[in-house]
Design goal:
This protein is an alpha/beta fold. The protein folds into two domains: about 5-210, Spore Coat Polysaccharide Biosynthesis Protein SpsA, Chain A; about 215-370, 2-C-methyl-D-erythritol 2,4-cyclodiphosphate synthase (60s Ribosomal Protein L30, Chain: A). About 30% of the residues lie in helices and about 25% in strands. It has helices at about 30-40, 60-65, 75-85, 105-115, 155-165, 175-180, 200-215, 255-265, 270-275, 290-300, 325-335, 355, and strands at about 5-10, 25, 30, 50-55, 70, 90-95, 120-125, 130, 140, 145, 150-155, 185-190, 215-230, 235, 240, 245, 305-315, 340-345, 360-370. Helix 5 (about 155-165) crosses helix 6. The radius of gyration is 25 Å and the shape is elongated. The mean pLDDT is about 95. Bound molecules: magnesium ion.
């Protein structure tokens, strides 16, 4: 059973987004669209994520998320969803609005679970505000639900709903179109964090709400590699001229390995050897920048923000001082951080021990991140 997710991000309105369509505007450290994209792509129950963008938004998408699959939407939301449905090959589909960035994996779990017994499922929250009509008459709120996205469907059902819908009419949402065909759509528990971002003020409120859910975590990493003649010396992603290089299965960048382990530690994701086993020939001579970017990607996929990296390189030679700024700039660039959030230090061990004898180098790193508590 294959599950695809469509993220509808085709809006052209720039009012709430500070000059760019709001789905590409920065929110809590990254473009709004990147939040729900990261959650969906990281979810084990989702096999494929396709973004539906507006005409002319190809560059904005590439700038926000790099080269990822997309289709071009239509003039109205219903057409955008239909274009997306036509481009996926799946048994089940989640249809999500980019304007609801803070999607949590448990909402996806509940939706997919409900699809086992229903043709469709949507997240909702009970209405708690007092409601009145335009004439001031109280409206009973019992049984009323605020509907959110993603809306989840068996693919054949939602395709049939779109195919049979009158071309000259828009629809309030996809669930409505499925109900018209006579299917019951399950309502699962939504999330307050999933609120839609519509106005400029919503950005500030979402920013503050998101920050309040994050907790600081720190973790450390440590690595050692042996000096060998005839090897290149790579340190912090920078090639450094020296009589010896470090030997190892990859490029043996001891500094990036320590930082990678520190980052993996913040999310309890094991160590670098588990993700890139030395026994796997594909990592022979690999650039360690890849390992670092992988660890950073895992944190980003959980909505985490890297706040600070502190690195200490331990060796007698070469002198690190002349390369400190270049190493700092390279690590910052790889992690997409300002250089002010990366610290690079170096020390000797007073000619004591293996580093003191020049047999190898060591590196220690501490990573500080903020990430939402999962409650697990
Ligand atoms: Mg290593």
């Amino acid at each position: 059973m294959k599950t695809a997710a469509l993220i509808v991000a085709a809006g052209q309105g720039v009012r709430a987004g500070g000059g760019v369509p709001k789905q590409f505007a920065m929110l809590a450290g990254k473009p709004m669209l990147a939040h729900s994209y990261g959650t969906l792509i990281a979810h084990p129950g989702v096999d494929e994520v396709l973004v539906v963008i507006g005409e002319g938004q190809e560059d904005a998408l590439a700038a926000a998320l790099g080269p990822i699959p997309f289709v071009i939407g239509g003039a109205i939301r219903r057409e955008s969803v239909r274009n997306g449905l036509a481009a996926i090959d799946a048994d089940r589909v989640l249809i999500h609005d980019a304007a609801r960035p803070f999607l949590s994996p448990d909402v996806i779990d509940r939706l997919l679970d409900a699809l086992n017994s229903h043709e469709g499922a949507i997240p909702g929250l009970p209405v708690t505000d007092t409601l009145v009509s335009a004439a001031g008459e109280p409206v009973p709120r019992d049984g009323l639900t605020r509907v959110q996205t993603p809306q989840a469907f068996r693919a054949a059902t939602i395709r049939a709903a779109h195919d049979s819908w009158p071309q000259d009419q828009d629809a309030t949402d996809d669930a409505q179109m499925v109900r018209v065909l006579g299917h019951e759509v399950a309502i699962v528990e939504g999330s307050r964090a999933l609120e839609k971002i519509t106005h400029t003020a919503d950005f500030a409120a979402a920013e503050a709400r998101h920050a309040a859910t994050l907790r600081v975590r720190t973790a450390q990493g440590f690595d050692v590699h042996r000096f060998a003649a005839g090897e290149e010396l790579w340190l912090g992603g920078v090639r450094i001229p020296h009589s010896h290089g470090l030997s190892g299965h990859s490029d043996a960048d001891v500094a990036l390995h320590a930082i990678t382990d520190a980052l993996l530690g913040t999310i309890g994701a094991g160590d670098i050897g588990m993700h890139f086993p030395p026994s796997d020939p594909q990592w022979r001579g690999a650039a360690s920048a890849r390992f670092l970017e992988h660890a950073a990607g895992l944190i980003a996929a959980q909505g985490g923000i890297i706040d600070f990296i502190d690195l200490t390189i331990i060796c007698e030679a070469p002198k690190i001082g002349p390369h400190q700024d270049a190493i700092r700039a390279r690590i910052a660039a790889l992690l997409r951080l300002p250089a002010a959030r990366v610290s690079v230090k170096a020390t000797t061990t007073e000619r004591l021990g293996f580093t003191g004898r020049g047999e190898g180098m060591a590196a220690q790193a501490i990573a500080t991140i903020r990430i939402a508590e999962t409650g697990e």
